[in-house]
């Protein structure tokens, strides 16, 4: 590679692959991005039902500073390219037989809501919880999340002697559920905050208490993207093209070839051969360890020992009533322990699951959604609205499931349980215009080697966060990005993984030193 920049092929246009392409192209590195699907985004996919576009993957945008940092690498400003609206309500949470509970970006506002919902004591407990989750985030942001693959030793060294107490206060040896049981008296609050484990495909009864830092991430801002979450992927695609990247969609990869122990070329499904000094693989690492992309890559990293959560999702255009939905609403079941025991031990589903609903035509504020609905309905030509402006809406629903093949009757049963849960909560859905269901088997087909797992490896046990591979694989020139590698699953984490992979590749190639993911933190 002496005398010229490396020829890089990025495999997979999920958020990690797009971020790696962006970071490399911003350095002037020639990059070819190949993606088997017709559009960018990976799991951040878009589907159309009854003529309306749905976000059918991630629906929550947080850690805005990660994307600001990425755009800053090319001297660009995020807000000039991606309009965002800050949500006034983080999420609405509902239980059968009680009033719902809304959480807000402001700690005191949420504390007041919790006092009215539960007790003054738990309101004070929430203040303590908020401070603890913020301290955890501050401890682990630069030392873990934005660092090249850490291990317990390197994490301790980065923290230094003065930082060791802070690391211990992240509670790595306690489960999230056990920590919440010590924190909150009201069991509904334990259930609410335990849900953060599912953000990385894990069980709160096995995941470390460290994951409570996600609560701080949400308080720092949940954003609604103009045009939906898929607009983020489209925007990144536009920017990397402007930076000179060659983006090829609808182009699958048959194998990645090596010469000795170094990548040498990428062979596409149509037989075309792309010479490569380096490859960034943005996909589930199981595709490598199972030999899906060539036997020589099977040793690139350690095999996955456990799969994360999968899900059944439903995109539906219909008219909801009976419950006032926020943009994000969570309907909890009555037996939370059984929900995760069923998935991770029995490999099935509970009879009373938690259901998440994203009402994608509603704003993130406290104001009534009627005017917003009326405007979106007029824009789409939708008819059938009542005098208050309500009408058929885009409703995305999700229920967790194990990552394994499902028989048709199991999928039907899970879809029925989803409806039964919503019915018990009083949500009525009628005037349906269309629906599309995606089951674990569909996710397995969409994303090869995942078995339908949506988050790669679950974060279980104190060492779960260290089990993911880092940017550098055991094959020279092969770098890893995406939700199955460090720092983990989720839109901002996958984006960070792509930046880390680009930084590792640039360092190994001896390129002029540019700003790293650790150094560019954005503004929080």
Structure description:
- It is a single chain.
- The chain is of the alpha/beta class and 524 residues long.
- Helix content is 34%, strand content 19%.
- The protein is built from 17 helices and 19 strands.
- A seven-stranded mixed beta sheet has the order 7-6-15-16-17-14-18.
- The model is unreliable at 367-388 (pLDDT under 50).
What gross morphology would you assign?
globular
Assembly level:
single chain
- Helix- and strand-based class? alpha/beta
Helix percentage range? 25-40%
The low-confidence parts are: 367-388
Largest sheet: 7 strands, mixed
Termini separation comes to 38 Å
Number of helical runs? 17
How big a fraction of the residues is strand? 15-25%
Average pLDDT for all residues: 90
**Neighbour order of strands in the largest sheet:** 7-6-15-16-17-14-18
What is the count of β-strands?
Answer: 19
What is the CA-based Rg, rounded? 22 Å
